[in-house]
Amino acid sequence: MRLPLLLLAAVSIPLDAQRQQQPELGVRSAPVLEQNGMRFRDLNKNGRLDVYEDWRKTPAVRARDLVA
């Protein structure tokens, strides 16, 4: 029951607030991509920024891309 509550909390963050600030990326094994001064984890290590790796996108958009 706690997982849906956590997801609702993440989705309720205003989109503008998500996009304004670069999050701190904790990277252990995934390479980091840089694009326009922003950093992203290259989770599938393909050398390009995929939609689900883009923290600026909404959780729903990222999940839809990842499932597809």
Give the helices and strands, then pairings.
Layout: H1 2-11, H2 15-20, E1 32-35, E2 38-41, H3 59-67
Antiparallel strand pairs: 1-2
What does this structure look like?
This protein has 68 residues and is of the alpha+beta class. The protein has helices at residues 2-11, 15-20, 59-67, and strands at residues 32-35, 38-41. A two-stranded antiparallel sheet has the order 1-2. Strand 1 (32-35) and strand 2 form a beta hairpin. The radius of gyration is 13 Å and the shape is globular.
Structure, briefly:
The chain has 68 residues and is of the alpha+beta class.
- Percent helix range: 25-40%
What's the overall geometry? globular
Query: What is the overall number of helices?
Result: 3
Strand order of the largest sheet: 1-2
Total strands: 2
Beta content comes to 5-15%
Uncertain segments: 3-11
What structural category do the secondary elements indicate?
alpha+beta
Overall mean confidence score, pLDDT: 78
Cα distance, first to last residue?
Answer: 26 Å
Biggest pleated-sheet summary:
2 strands, antiparallel
List keywords for this structure.
68 residues; alpha+beta; two-stranded antiparallel sheet; 3 helices; 2 strands; 37% helix; globular; disordered N terminus
